[in-house]
Design goal:
Helices cover 40% and strands 15% of the residues. The chain is built from 4 helices and 6 strands; from the N terminus they run H-H-H-H-E-E-E-E-E-E. A 3-stranded antiparallel beta sheet has the order 1-4-5. It is elongated. The protein starts with 28 loop residues before the first helix and ends in a 16-residue tail after the last strand.
Length: 237
Amino acid sequence: MTEPEEAPQEVPEEVPAAAPYSDSSGMPQNEMYAQPPTASVEKTSPTQPQARPDPGDPNGPTLQEALQQIRMLNQEVADMKDKMLRALADVDNTRRRSERDLKDTAKFAVTAFARDMLSVSDNLKRALEAIPSDQLESNEQLKTIYEGVEATERELMRSMAKNGITKIEPLDQKFDPNMHEVILEIPSFDKAPGTVMQVVETGYMIHERLLRPARVAIAKNAMAPPAESGGIVDQEV
C-alpha cells in the first residue's frame, strides 16, 4: 500500500515593507514617533505679574495702581472738606457781621440828628445860666420863664436818654483824652495835675460811642511851667 503524497506547502510571499509615511514636515512618521518628544520650555519673565484687585478683570488696574487711586481720592476728599469748612466759616462770619451792622444801624441811626440837637440843649442851658438867680424871687414873670425853659431842657434830655444819649460828667475826674478835650489849664495847689476843674462845654455819649467830647479846664501844678493846651478826640462818631 502506497503512502499518500504530502501536498506541497505554500510558502507565503513576503509582504514588502510599507514605505515610511512622511508628513508635511518631511520627517518619516515612524521615525517621528520613534524619537522621544522634546519638552517645550517656556521662557518666563524675571518679574512676576502684579496682582489685580479683581482677578476676573484682566484689564483692570493693578493693586498698586488701585492703592494710588485710593490715596488720590482721599486727598481730594480732604481738600474738599477743608474748602467746605472754610466756606462755612466765611458764611458764619458774614452772618455775624451783618447782624452786628444791623444792630449798630439801629443803635446809631439817630447820631446825626442827636448831634444837631446838642446845639439846642446848649442854647437852653445858656438861657438858664443867663437869668440871675437873685431876680427869680422878685420877678414872678421871669421865674415863670425860667421854669418853662428848665422844663423844656429836662424833656429834651429825657428824650435823648431814651435814644441812648447821655451826658459826660467829668468834673473832679481824671482827664481822659478819649472823652475830654482840654481848653485851658488852671494852676492849683489842692487838685492833682490833670483833674478836671471846670466843664466849659458838656460832652455826650451815644451808647458806648463818643458823640461829642467834653471841653474842660484841668488843674496843673502851680509851680510847673504852662503846658500846651489841646485834646485828643479819636472816638467821635
